[in-house]
Amino acid sequence: MNNSKNILVTGGAGYIGSHTVVDLIQNGFNPIIVDDFRNAQKSSVAGIEEIIGKSIEVREVDVCDRVALKKVFEEFSFSGIIHFAAYKAVGESVESPLSYYRNNIVGLINVLELSIEFNVSNFVFSSSCTVYGEPTDSKVVTENTPIQPANSPYGNTKRIGEEIIEDVIASGVNMKILCLRYFNPVGAHASSLIGELPIGKPNNLLPVVTQCAIGKIPSITVNGNDYDTIDGTCVRDYIHVLDLANAHVKGVEWLAQQENPIVENVNIGTGKGTSVLEVIETFEEISGLKLNWKFGERRAGDVVEIFADVTKSFNLLNWKSNLSARDAIIDSWNWELKLKND
Ligand code: WQD
């Protein structure tokens, strides 16, 4: 095995991680998954293996367990790391801030320390458009749009994570780091062999829509209808998880070409905004079903409207999204139907 193709993927059994692992393999890389399966299921590894037609290396390790994680660095020689493993539920983070700070910050520090110790210089960090908060001047945000105080402990872990990375690079270590600021990841693999597996009651819009349609939840509340947007509901940049996965592959390839230490923040979105009502209407049109939805109160802390300026992702990484929100809604629905049949 060519070690220069070994990529450590923490959280590689999760939603974005599993799609990225597939794309890495399809582009000649050899991903090694580290996941403790607290927020992912073993079935996602089986799904990856079915898509690619071979088995993959998985180590069941918590990234906060530095001793166990070090053993993985001793076992494999990595040319790059994609660090997904983290908690990601906004509401839960408000209720359990310390578990978010421990998991997301301690995990990041462990992975960075071991990267330095084992001379792994290429590093991709899962960041989020949440660092922009509610954009004030324009709803289209570039990477130079000012960062704002986070509106949840989860969002703060992403902001602090980026700051830690800036300081690490400023200290003169030999690392090259990409912080990918994801917009709203949606969709599933077209094979319906991997997709999102929300644990418990979903909070994000697409899982709420598909779970309502399949009968797992009784109704959908649209959080507010009096915003200053196209139809009064909030607008987001829904990025297909397959496109998002490919951004990581392009990111790893770009990092490998860089000779000097560097850190770059890059938006990963489509550049197009879609409202909550547009998502619901598109779903109804695709599925032929009528959803049981009603308008409710605004959700505390909701950003009104945001979407990505995607100039930098194209110019720097030669990456752009190919799939639309509509494509993602189709794949999310097929995934939900597949889960039901299983
Ligand atoms: C989208 C819209 C809701 C459920 C998430 C993360 C955030 C960042 C971006 C990663 C909002 C509305 C939802 C429902 C609704 N990603 N909605 N009824 O708020 O953009 O945030 O993605 O870091 O950190 O939390 O995504 O899917 O929760 O909501 O009306 O039952 O759908 O109010 O306007 P959001 P979301």
Question: Would you summarize the structure shown here?
Answer:
The protein has 342 residues and is an alpha/beta fold. Helix content is 41%, strand content 18%. Strand 2, helix 2 and strand 3 form a beta-alpha-beta unit.
What do these coordinates show?
The protein has 342 residues and is an alpha/beta fold. The protein is built from eleven helices and 15 strands. The strands form five sheets. A seven-stranded parallel beta sheet has the order 3-2-1-4-5-7-12, with helices on both faces. Helix 1 runs parallel beside helix 2, helix 3 runs parallel beside helix 5 and helix 9 packs across helix 11. The mean pLDDT is 96. The structure holds UDP-4-deoxy-4-formamido-beta-L-arabinopyranose.
Structural class: alpha/beta
Shape: globular
The unreliable regions are: none
Instruction: Characterize the quaternary organization of these chains.
Output: single chain
End-to-end C-alpha gap: 36 Å
Number of helices: 11
**Mean pLDDT figure:** 96
Work out the number of β strands.
Answer: 15
Bound molecules: UDP-4-deoxy-4-formamido-beta-L-arabinopyranose
How large is the radius of gyration?
19 Å
Beta content? 15-25%
Percentage of residues in helical conformation: 40-55%
Largest sheet composition: 7 strands, parallel
Strand order of the largest sheet: 3-2-1-4-5-7-12
The helix/strand series, from N terminus to C terminus, equals EHEHEHEHHEEHEEHEEEHEEHEEHH
